[in-house]
Amino acid sequence: MVDIVILTVLLAGTTWIVPQLAFHLLGLQPPHCPEGTEWWRFRVHLCHALGWVNPVATLAYPPLYRVTFWTVAGQTPGMALFGLRLLRTDGRQIDLATAIRRWAARLGSILALGLGFLPILLSTRRQALHDRLAGTVVVHAWAEPMPRPWAELRG
Predict the structure, then answer these.
(1) What is the mean pLDDT of each run of 10 residues along the chain (155 residues)?
(2) Which long-range contacts (CB under 8 A, 24 or more apart) does 119-128 make?
(3) Do residues 125 and 132 make contact, with C-beta atoms less than 8 angstroms apart?
(4) Which residues 6+ apart lie within 8 Å of 149 measured at CB?
(5) Helix axes 96-111, 53-72, angle to 10 degrees
(6) Reduced to 3 DSSP states, what percent helix, strand and coil does the chain have, rounded to the nearest 5?
(7) Are the CB atoms for 129 and 109 separated by under 8 Å?
């Protein structure tokens, strides 16, 4: 949910900021674009292209966000908050190809009404179908062990 909130804020910011910048800097308003189809009329083409900002950002942000964080840090901010890290099954950090393969398989798991997540309940390594297909595993990776003051009370 943390990653979804971050993506929503990014998407909302993009779909609000880009049209505002286009209006204030260039005087463009997408519903009221000037006419003209000549190739040299850059303002006209840019005005019509502004209508594509929201759909393109909606489709591009989720894979770019996840694949970039998985590749660079091994975890998204939401995973980091809960102490989770994504690794290959052999314990190495994932590369770009593995991250893309996992994202594509994860999309398939979601499109299959979430059935790809069911193997988590049955697997000893708690791997979803997309983790098995990509050769990845999600592990607990807190930076330091959490303090357990109640353990000392038990004596």
Answers:
(1) 94 86 79 72 80 88 96 94 93 95 93 90 90 94 60 54
(2) 125/89
(3) no
(4) none
(5) 130
(6) 65, 5, 30
(7) yes
Q: Specify the pLDDT at position 60.
A: 94
Integer Cα distance of 44 and 124 in angstroms: 58
At 87 the three-state DSSP class reads strand
Instruction: In whole angstroms, give the CA distance from residue 116 to residue 86.
Output: 17
Q: What is the CB neighbour count within 10 angstroms for residue 59?
A: 10
Identify the sign of the CA torsion 138, 71, 8, 33.
negative
Residue 140 has phi, psi (to 5 degrees) of -80, 130
Exposure string over 63-72, b if 16+ CB within 10 A, otherwise e: eebbbebbbe
Q: Measured between alpha carbons, how far is 73 from 65 in angstroms, rounded to an integer?
A: 12
Tokens of 143: 């930076």
Instruction: For residue 101, give both structure tokens.
Output: 């393969």
